[in-house]
Amino acid sequence: MTEEATETEPLFDAPEMAEQERMVEAILFASAEPVTVADMTARMPHGCDAAAALALLRARYEGRGVRVVQVGESWAIRTAPDLGHLLQKETVEMRKLSRAAIETLAIIAYHQPVTRAEIEEIRGVSVSRGTVDLLIEMEWIRFGRRRMTPGRPVTFVVTPAFLDHFGLETARDLPGLKELRAAGLLDNRPPPGLSELDAPEEEEEVFDDEGQEDMFGDGE
Amino acid sequence: MTEEATETEPLFDAPEMAEQERMVEAILFASAEPVTVADMTARMPHGCDAAAALALLRARYEGRGVRVVQVGESWAIRTAPDLGHLLQKETVEMRKLSRAAIETLAIIAYHQPVTRAEIEEIRGVSVSRGTVDLLIEMEWIRFGRRRMTPGRPVTFVVTPAFLDHFGLETARDLPGLKELRAAGLLDNRPPPGLSELDAPEEEEEVFDDEGQEDMFGDGE
Amino acid sequence: MSEDQVNQNSDQISVSERLAAEALIVDVDGFEGPLDILLTLARTQKVDLLKISVLHLAEQYLVFVEKAKELRIELAADYLVMAAWLAFLKSRLLLPPDPAEDGPTGEDLAAHLAFQLERLAAMRDVAARLMARDQLGRDFFARGVPEGVERVRRIEYSANLLDLMQAYARIRTRDEFRPFVMDRDNVFTMEQALERMRPMIGFAGQWTDILSYLPQGWDMDPGRRRSATAATFAAALELVKEGHAEVRQSETFAPIQLRHRKRADD
User: Fold this and answer.
1) What is the DSSP string of A127-170?
2) What is the pLDDT of residue A61?
3) Cα A173 from chain centroid (whole Å)
4) Long-range contacts of C189-193 (CB under 8 A, 24+ apart)
5) CA-CA-CA-CA torsion for B105, B109, B111, B116, nearest 10 degrees?
6) How far is CA B41 from its chain centroid?
7) What's the Cα-to-Cα distance from B191 to each of A204, B55, C200, rounded to whole Å?
8) Distance (Å, rounded) from C-alpha C136 to C-alpha C134?
9) Under an 8 A CB cutoff, do A194 and C175 touch?
10) Is the CB of A65 less than 8 angstroms away from the CB of B90?
11) Nearest CA to A75 among A127, A101, A40?
12) Do B103 and C127 touch (CB under 8 A)?
């Protein structure tokens, strides 16, 4: 019967607006794709005003956990952007930092600001791009000022996130070799035959004064 | 700092209830599968009361085009059944279930946990492997505890997906369950003469108490 | 069950019943086993299942099986087992109970069969009610575009302060700092020599006697010197093999010299 009703003279009244709003709500909710107003109208009983019902629904979802959003010509229900984090489930995978990465990090921490060439000189091997990228991505190092030397190389420094992770107030708090040894953190048994000769004082010097001083001197 | 805060004395207040309600709303809308309160709580900030927020949300959606429904231990948003006709387009052709499959499903739902032998006793025919496999594949039934009788037969029970599919809050809401129970038709009544032999008393016990109490527990 | 009821039922089976039995046989594939047939037959009694005449039912069933035999229709074993059982039941119901005999009485057996039929009918009924419910994906729907839970895989690298400090110490004191190893005081291994030489080889642009690569303190004691020399020589060859260095010797027993070799990927 409804099919026979003409547009101009419907036999039955269209459902109430509240009912139409429910319909739009269910359609938008269940649809796998965003839905056009024309599509809603086609699915709703004759005489419905999908656009008006949609406007009501939109207003109703204002400020809610989900919103009615326009996608091109169509409409869809989507999570409010500020709640997106609730829909993420983080799986944390622990990995040991590679030896190359931890050594590079250590050199940066003790010598910052330090250039890539200097890191390579200290480690005695080249530093791969991936290692530096990883440390930057982890937000443990960042670019420092360019060195005022030929080629103006970039330098690396450690970040507050690094200090936070390692429980340091400043990189200056990193213990020197002597302290490490005193604390029993190093195998302080010198290789046989080396006895007192080695553990050269200068080395310690380098790293305490040259190293730390030039790094944290604000004056560069 | 927050890590050190104890459960009893949070450093930060939980978000306001209105905000918590939005969160539950976003979580439920985002998932096609029912979500447990525990899961919501896990995703919400510390100190939130997901159950209370859920109760508010449920009331809010009363009479709307979509509803907050309980499915076993979990919660989901589903379109209101009276609007199904608008949404037929979304229907994926439902697999036509055989009469054997439907009866087997009903027997499992009403008699769970139930063994294959018991299903066969009720239907008077052997249960084909394909029927059980199909129901398992549809995730409507699963294996329950083994029966503590000779042979330790496996039992079958219905799943939350079954409840979800048929719009049941719990298995207690199965249509006609109370009447069947009152009429003694859910009793496991062993054939006379067999009772002493291989339908030991405890079997009845297990079936009724362990099994049904489990599921239908307080509602009796 | 009363005597006259029994007599009335046992003798002749009405024509309509025979016809019904034949209809069942023709359609036997459509039935879900003997209990299903019995239930269908019971329904022809048009009484409450609790009040059916089990004896009558048994007779109807036996007629059905007889008929099937006449028509040479193969019945599944289940049907025949049921027929045998019903014949036994029938005899139990018709004969007066033997007080000496153990086991269930005919009435017990009949009551159980009635219970089974009623239970099957009840399960059929609730199955229909269940299927008549609103169903997900047919009458009500889940979210069309579940946004789901995005699984974010985050890799967390573990490194503590000790790792950091030890790494630094390892670099700065390569000659002296060693991780704990089994001490073999007078043996210098190829690995040790390699570790020692690797960082140094990069700077060896000129031909250098490999003996100059011997670690400090290993050149005095003859035994230690031998071990260190052998290890250094082996390590030198390893570096050559890896393409990091070149090695030469001008004549037999002449000093062996080593020089850095630039590699494409260096």
Assistant:
1) PPHHHHHHHHHTTSEEE-PPPSSTT---EEEE-HHHHHHTT-SS
2) 94
3) 28
4) C189/C231, C190/C231, C190/C234, C190/C235, C190/C238, C192/C231, C193/C228, C193/C231, C193/C232, C193/C234, C193/C235
5) 40
6) 21
7) 92, 48, 91
8) 7
9) yes
10) no
11) A40
12) yes
CA C188, distance to chain mean position in Å, is 53
* Distance in angstroms (rounded) separating the CA atoms of residues C201 and C210: 11
Domains of chain B, CATH where assigned: 14-81 (1.10.10.10), 99-174 (1.10.10.10)
ipTM value greater than 0.90: no
Task: Find tokens 């129970």 and name the residue.
Answer: B181
Pairwise CA distance, residues B87 & A163, whole Å: 57
Predicted pLDDT at B174:
94
Question: What is the identity of the amino acid at C114?
Answer: A
Asked if the Cβ–Cβ distance from A29 to B80 is below 8 Å, we say: no
Q: Do A29 and C143 touch (CB under 8 A)?
A: yes
What does the DSSP 8-state code read for residue A213?
A: I
Task: Determine the distance in angstroms separating the CA of A17 from the nearest CA of chain B, rounded to an integer.
Answer: 12
In a mutational test of the C interface, the residue from A23, A79, A89, A209 whose CB has the highest number of chain C CBs within 10 Å is: A89
Under-70 pLDDT residues of chain B:
1-12, 88-95, 193-220
Nearest to A29 among B27, B65, B89 (CB): B65
Is the minimum CB–CB distance between C30 and chain B shorter than 8 Å?
Answer: no
Nearest CA distance, A102 vs chain C (angstrom) = 6
Name residue A93's beta-bridge partners: C155
Per DSSP, helices labelled H in chain A are 17-30, 37-43, 50-60, 99-111, 116-123, 129-137, 160-165, 177-182, 201-205, 214-216
Q: Which run of H or of E encompasses C47?
A: none
Please name the residue of chain C whose CA is at the shortest distance from the CA of residue B103: C127
Residue of C168, C174, C182 to mutate for A, most A C-beta atoms under 10 A: C168
Which residues in chain C (140-159) have CB-CB distances under 8 A to chain A? 141-145, 147-159
Q: Do A193 and C163 touch (CB under 8 A)?
A: no
The band of C208, judged by pLDDT with boundaries at 50, 70 and 90, is confident
Give which of C231, C236, C183, C169 is closest to A193, Cα–Cα: C183
Q: CA-based angle B122:B124:B129, to the nearest 5?
A: 90
3-state SS of chain B is CHHHCCCCCCCCCCCCHHHHHHHHHHHHHHCCCCEEHHHHHHHCCCCCCHHHHHHHHHHHCCCCCEEEEEECCEEEEEECHHHHHHHHHHCCCCCCCCHHHHHHHHHHHHHCCEEHHHHHHHHCCCCCHHHHHHHHHCCCEEECCCCCCCCCCCEEEECHHHHHHCCCCCHHHCCCHHHHHHCCCCCCCCCCCCHHHHCCHHHHHHHHHHHHHHHHHHHC
Q: Which residues contact A161 (CB under 8 A, 6 or more apart)?
A: A138, A139, A140
Other beta carbons within 10 angstroms of residue A180's beta carbon come to 21
Interface contact C131, partner B, CB < 8 A: yes
Contacts of A180 (CB under 8 A, 6+ apart): A186, C165, C166, C169
pLDDT value at residue C260? 84
Angle (CA) A198 C201 A113, round 5°? 70
User: Which of A79-93, C58-72, C134-148 has the highest mean predicted lDDT (pLDDT)?
Assistant: C58-72
Q: How far apart are CA C205 and CA C201, in angstroms?
A: 8
Q: Smallest Cα–Cα separation from A142: which of A113, A102, A106, A167? A: A113
